[in-house]
């Protein structure tokens, strides 16, 4: 560590708690940019247009994965599934047959001649014709038992132990009717047996997934892959072709893409990001030291940059010139100041230009997005009213650049119009994203910005409204103090807007007991403190600081304003 101090005096600071913030920032940059950079062979991605011809440098025999998969699919489609008997269906049919014959035997035993309503009820319950039920009830015992026994034998042989698919029903029914004819039953008995077979027969087959997979795996294991030979000098990919999986497969077989290439790309990206992060730290330490000491601002920087990068991944699908990077300097200008926004933009430009593999137009648009807001607004912090103007200027710059590039390249009118629309739309969207993000970060992290301070000076703010109505004397006093504080801050170069906002709210604690303070008493001759003990009076007067701090926290006032409330009486005697 002592050697580090001699080589790099600021090393200890960097290796403090800030290190985790910069490490997280670099890691997220690597994750987001790596997703775009680490794709096969630079611009060669499936579905894209090839930017150059690629020729095979040597002979090689490869397995044609696509042809092999196609052949496997065709074979799999022709392999029928293996079926098994669904025991649930078999059990259901057995119970139905048992219940059917038990019911019949109960009626047969109860009366010699069944009543018509009994026959009708039984027929409706079991969905069998009345003539069939009447025959079963009135038939001699031998004929009845013959039909019953034959039905059980047929189902035991062809249904309970063999799977029957829906498409097999007609065949199985025909086979069962053939067996009924061979049984030489009397005419009506044969007719009744056929009806009962039709009544109870249904599909009972279920696919046996395990055996089906085993059968398919056994067949596929014996399948030889489809191979093809790539000859030296063969054009694997022509400029303008749409890259397919087959192209990528050939390139990988020749070692022209693959994990080794991705590894070196990842290594170079990691080194680039480490360099950017270290340079950023050194820049901030030299020009914006306050930023390094504010964990909230460090986190806001991380969220703003990474959030815009994620959004870029979405807008890239619309058009490569549809950029929203201008939101980054706008957010940082508003929340952290000109120095931070300038440094971040200067360091992000080469990193994003390289990682996003931009062409000339993309690089120019990125440059405009990252740096024009910084120079358009200058060293003053951006306010909400500036966002619209910057968005309009960004849209104009980017739209004009798109048209100029289209004219230079001889592109069609519609292509030039698309460049103008998407380039200009990116500028507008960047200002909208920045506006929403600033509001979110302000309220989430309690950041004090000029925009936030202007909102606090609005007389319609709930606390100021209460102060005006419930403690008018305190409100008038606060306005006078605000005027004095603002002028004094301007004279010494302090933040005049913060001084005014702090003066507005420094006495809000008096809202808890406004009548205990003389400026709010209707008659000075009737002072409520005359009826209180000195100790209690002191507690009430001093307590307005504590009460004000509680109200400030409840209404989520900025930390700086809370500090003014807490310290506006100093440490001396009140």
From TrEMBL:
Keyword set, alphabetical order: Membrane, Transmembrane, Transmembrane helix
Domain HD/PDEase, chain residue ranges per copy: 470-561
Annotated TM spans: 20-39, 266-284, 296-314, 321-340, 360-378, 390-407, 419-441
InterPro entries membership: HD/PDEase_dom, HD_domain, HDIG_dom, Metal-dep_PHydrolase_7TM_extra, Metal-dep_PHydrolase_7TM_intra, PgpH_phosphodiesterase
NCBIfam families in the record: HDIG (TIGR00277)
Protein name: HDIG domain-containing protein
């Amino acid at each position: 560590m002592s050697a580090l101090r001699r080589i790099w005096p600021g090393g200890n600071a960097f290796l403090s708690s800030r290190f985790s913030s910069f490490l997280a920032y670099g890691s997220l940059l690597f994750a987001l940019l790596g997703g775009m950079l680490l794709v096969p062979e630079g611009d060669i991605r499936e579905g894209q247009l090839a930017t150059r011809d690629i020729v095979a440098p040597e002979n090689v025999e490869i397995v044609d994965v696509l042809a092999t998969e196609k052949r496997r699919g065709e074979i799999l489609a022709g392999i029928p599934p293996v079926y098994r008997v669904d025991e649930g269906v078999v059990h259901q049919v057995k119970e139905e047959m048992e219940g059917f014959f038990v019911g019949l035997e109960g009626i047969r035993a109860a009366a010699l001649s069944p009543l018509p309503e009994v026959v009708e009820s039984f027929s409706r319950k079991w969905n069998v014709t009345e003539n069939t039920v009447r025959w079963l009830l009135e038939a001699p015992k031998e004929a009845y038992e013959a039909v019953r026994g034959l039905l059980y034998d047929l189902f035991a042989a062809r249904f309970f132990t063999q799977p029957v698919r829906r498409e097999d029903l007609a065949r199985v029914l025909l086979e069962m009717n053939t067996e009924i004819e061979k049984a030489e039953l009397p005419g009506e008995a044969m007719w009744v047996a056929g009806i009962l077979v039709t009544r109870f027969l249904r599909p009972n087959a279920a696919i046996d997934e395990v055996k089906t997979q085993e059968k398919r795996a056994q067949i596929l294991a014996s399948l030889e892959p489809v191979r093809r030979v790539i000859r030296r000098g063969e054009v694997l990919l022509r400029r303008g072709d749409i890259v397919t999986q087959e192209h990528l497969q050939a390139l990988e077989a020749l070692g022209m893409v693959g994990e080794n290439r991705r590894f070196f790309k990842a290594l170079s990206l990691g080194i680039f990001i480490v360099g950017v992060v270290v340079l950023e730290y050194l820049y901030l330490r030299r020009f914006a030291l306050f930023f390094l000491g504010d964990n909230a601002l460090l986190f806001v920087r991380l969220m703003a940059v990474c959030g815009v990068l994620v959004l870029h991944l979405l807008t890239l699908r619309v058009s490569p010139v549809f950029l929203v990077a201008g939101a980054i300097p706008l957010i940082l200008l508003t929340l952290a100041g000109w120095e931070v926004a300038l440094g971040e933009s200067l360091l992000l430009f080469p990193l994003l230009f390289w990682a996003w593999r931009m062409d000339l137009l993309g690089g120019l648009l990125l440059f405009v997005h990252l740096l024009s807001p910084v120079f358009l607004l200058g060293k003053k912090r951006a306010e909400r009213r500036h966002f619209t103007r910057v968005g309009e200027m960004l849209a104009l710059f980017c739209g004009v650049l798109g048209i100029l590039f289209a004219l230079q390249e001889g592109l069609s009118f519609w292509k030039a119009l698309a460049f103008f629309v998407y380039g200009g739309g990116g500028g507008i969207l960047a200002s909208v994203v920045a506006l929403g993000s600033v509001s979110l970060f302000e309220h989430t992290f309690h950041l004090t910005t000029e925009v936030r301070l202007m909102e606090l000076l609005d007389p319609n703010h709930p606390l100021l409204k209460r102060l005006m109505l419930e403690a008018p004397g305190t409100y008038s006093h606060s306005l006078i103090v605000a005027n004095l504080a603002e002028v004094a801050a301007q004279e010494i170069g302090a933040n005049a807007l913060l001084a005014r906002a702090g003066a507005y709210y420094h006495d809000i604690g008096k809202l808890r007991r406004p009548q205990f303070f003389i400026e709010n008493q209707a008659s000075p001759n009737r002072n409520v403190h005359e009826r209180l003990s000195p100790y209690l009076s002191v507690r009430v007067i001093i307590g307005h600081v504590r009460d004000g701090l509680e109200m400030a926290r409840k209404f989520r006032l900025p930390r700086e304003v809370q500090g003014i409330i807490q310290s506006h009486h100093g440490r001396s005697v009140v």
